[in-house]
Amino acid sequence: MLREYARLAAPYFVMLAIMTTGRWVQGTVFRVPYQQGTHVFSIVTLTLFASLFCAMFLRRWQGFRLGRAAAFAMFMAVVSQLVIGLSTVVSYGLDIPSYFSNPMALTRQPEPVTFLAAMGFRAGGLVANTILNAIAGALGWALGGLLPAKAP
Fold first, then answer.
1. CA distances (Å), 140 to each of 24, 55, 94, in order?
2. Which DSSP string corresponds to 9-27?
3. Span 142-152, average pLDDT
4. pLDDT above 80 (res 152)
5. Considering the entire predicted model, what is its pTM?
6. How far is Cα 64 from Cα 100, in angstroms, rounded to an integer?
7. Is residue 30 over pLDDT 90?
């Protein structure tokens, strides 16, 4: 099942790589302030929209049932959160000030955050975003009923 999900999510993985690279470059190379640039390359927003749209099309054109569509959305959320977590580890480990270690991204407060606290916030994001993406996937699945049927 995970192999099938990975195959179906291939276009999403390309977009995830683009967004992750964009966040890294925007925050480190171009030094765009977090508050000014975070919305431009938002992995969380990308994942929510991908969950909605993918579930919609997977229902109509792949015959996914509600649970399977929600599980696919959760799969994308977990992968995204692992990328965010890994980027946070790299940022702290190499002492790179990036959007992934920015205190505003972690706590919405300007005070610095320790590595352990940051990873705790990332774990909370993993849980919360996986649930939100399951909901987005379920909503997308419901909207998928409005799409035309797959041509024979």
1. 30, 5, 39
2. THHHHHHHHHHHHHHHIII
3. 88
4. no
5. 0.95
6. 34
7. yes
- What does the alpha-carbon distance between residue 15 and residue 108 come to, in Å, rounded to a whole number? 26
Write the CB contacts of 134 (distance below 8 Å, at least 6 apart in sequence): 51, 70, 71, 73, 74, 77
- Size of the chain, expressed as the number of residues it contains: 152
Mean of pLDDT over the chain? 97
Q: Which two tokens stand for residue 113?
A: 């955050």
- Domains in the chain: boundaries: 2-144
Question: 3-12 pLDDT, tens per residue?
Answer: 999 999 999 9
CB burial string 110-128: b at 16+ within 10 A, e below: eeebeeeebbebbeebbee
Tokens linked to 152: 């024979």
Task: Give 54-79 pLDDT, tens digit per residue.
Answer: 999 999 999 999 999 999 999 999 99
CA dist list (Å): 87 to 46, 52, 66, 95, 128: 17, 25, 32, 12, 18
